[in-house]
Amino acid sequence: MENAPSLDGRPSTLAVSALSASSALYHIVESFQSPPISIRDFLRDLRALMEVLTQLIDIVGTATDIDPSALVFTLSRCSIACNEFKEEIKKQLPFPDDGSVSPQSWARLRYMGGNIDIVRHLLCGYKSAFEVIFTFTNL
Question: Nearest-CA neighbor of 54 among 6, 77, 22?
Fold first, then answer.
C-alpha cells in the first residue's frame, strides 16, 4: 500500500518515509510548467518541510532527550498526507505533454474537502510540530 508509512514504527524510519513522500510530492508538483502563485507558495512550504525533515532525521538518530512516541503519529500522518495528495493530483489533474496545467485546474484540485491551501496549512502544521522538537532538543 503506497500510502502507508513503514511498518517499522521507529521515528528515524518514519522520518525517512515522510521525507521520501514529501520529496515525491514536490517532484510531481514541480514537474508542471508555469504554476500559479498558490502552487509556487505550496512548493516553497513543501521545500521548508523537507528541510526540517532532513534535520529531524539527523537529530532523531543522535538525540537522547527526544521522546520517540511523540513523533510517531505526526511523522506517519505527514507521510500519509503527502502520498494521498500526490495520488489526488494524479487523479484530478490532466498531465499534458507540455507539462502545463491551467490555473482553473489547480483551483479545482481538492483534498480533504478543501483546496491546495488546506494541504499547505496541514504541511505547515507538521513542519511547526517538528520545529518545536528542535527547540526542545537545543535547550
Answer: 22
Q: Would residue 26 count as lying in a domain?
A: no
Q: How many whole angstroms separate alpha carbon 114 and alpha carbon 96?
A: 24
pLDDT tens, position by position, 43-85? 999 999 999 999 988 888 776 666 667 788 999 999 999 999 9
CA 8 to CA 31: how far, in whole Å? Answer: 31
Contact 76, 14 (CB under 8 A): yes
Residue 71 lies in a domain: yes
* CA contacts within 13 A on the Cβ side of 99: 9
Structurally, how many domains does the chain consist of?
1
Rounded to a whole number, what is the distance in angstroms from the first to the last CA of the chain?
A: 39
Length of the chain: 139
Its domain, for residue 129, covers: 40-56+67-138
Q: How far apart are CA 70 and CA 120, in angstroms?
A: 22
138 φ, ψ (degrees, to nearest 5): -95, 5
